[in-house]
Amino acid sequence: MASARNINRFWEWGRKIICVGRNYADHAKELKNAVPTEPVLFLKPPSAYVTEGSSIMVPFYSHNLHHEVELGVVIGKGGTAIPQNAAMDHIAGYALCLDMTARDVQDECKTKGLPWTLAKAFNTSCPVSEFITKEKIADPGNVKIWLKVNDQLRQEGNTSQMIFSIPFLISYISEIITLEEGDLILTGTPKGVSSVQEHDELQAGIEGIVSVKFRVHRP
Amino acid sequence: MASSRNLNRFWEWGRKIICVGRNYPDHAKELKNAVPTEPVLFLKPPSAYVTEGSSIVVPFYSHNLHHEVELGVVIGKGGTAIPQNAAMDHVAGYALCLDMTARDVQDECKTKGLPWTLAKAFNTSCPVSEFIPKEKIADPGNVKIWLKVNGQLRQEGNTSQMIFSIPFLISYISEIISLEEGDLILTGTPKGVSSVQEHDELQAGIEGVVSMKFRVDRPQ
After folding, report:
1. Nearest-CA distance A91 → chain B (Å)
2. Helices (H), ranges, A113-218
3. Does B59 touch chain A (CB under 8 A)?
4. Full-prediction pTM beyond 0.90?
5. Do A122 and B178 touch (CB under 8 A)?
6. How far is C-alpha B5 from the geometric centre of its chain's CA atoms?
7. Biggest alpha carbon–alpha carbon distance for chain A
8. Are B127 and B213 in contact, with CB atoms under 8 Å apart?
9. In whole angstroms, what is the distance from residue B34 CA to residue A8 CA?
10. B16/A47 Cβ within 8 A
11. In this predicted model, what pLDDT tens digit does every residue of B138-190 receive, in sequence order?
């Protein structure tokens, strides 16, 4: 059997993507959302993954696709109700991710009390970089992430601004949803989210670590 | 390497569960929801699976756990934008499923415009029966599904009542979310949803095909 579980290609076999919303105060504010007392969790299915070389596709039902650059955490050892002080032992590494969001659809879902699925879980809604081994990022709570559209800087933030830390998130999530090797946790986005159009080129990175490039297409 | 991709144990390796809400008009009505013009889709992660022999565990943050009995469709051949008239070729078989729902949390999520994750995606929120090969259900659009709590019938419906048919759902979903072998689609629940408590015994079945039993526990 070809692929054993190679963490370098976690997107090929990983079974879930858990996303944390509103984890940067300035992003909550720009969308006029309350700053939460508990993490806001939503899911993307693994069919959402897209890697460099392939394009981000605007979902046919949306007219307002937004970028959201995020630090992703890749789980190396699963668990349930993982204590915060053990959380970092469960990490295999990281990835730079974009939580692509159909903002118009999300606004409608929020108004109507509907699930966020069509806003967040469509094909190519989770562009990811190569896998980054744990040792490459000494302190994931203090890295700079950035995103440009057509070379113009749109987002720039530091993970130190996260409301809920990575160990807290791993612990909190795993009390409700058991984590497994290969799972990806998207840890939220700083302010500066904006629309992207067909033919736009997105560049994003973790300063000093990795950068990615993706083009946007319409179906 | 031990488990190849054995469809008989699809829950061990399947990568996604896609659920359809409000697909029976009597259920939409009982929850005072509008009958939808398009399917309402939400996700459960594979960590939600629970099979007979293990218990359904009430999430610690909920005081109103509801049962929802559903016909599940197991995908045998993946695809994107699958045409309706080819949809049934992509089906490997079925499973009886319960879409366990923290109703109190769901009501709060709806009011606040939040995702339904804590209401629908917690551990043990997707009890499933054994895998039912396709040939065992000649017409999945006309089977009776039922659920009892402590021997008392609570839900009883026929899949003929579904607003959106299985071929429509496979086609609709696969335009937005590519389907893959081992995926499970929960196709909605008829009226009669109700609360379950610790120590309750749930029995559910597809008439003439399968039945299953689960106990409800509170977390340790």
Report:
1. 18
2. 117-120, 166-176
3. yes
4. yes
5. no
6. 21
7. 50
8. no
9. 45
10. yes
11. 999 999 999 999 999 999 999 999 999 999 999 999 999 999 999 999 999 99
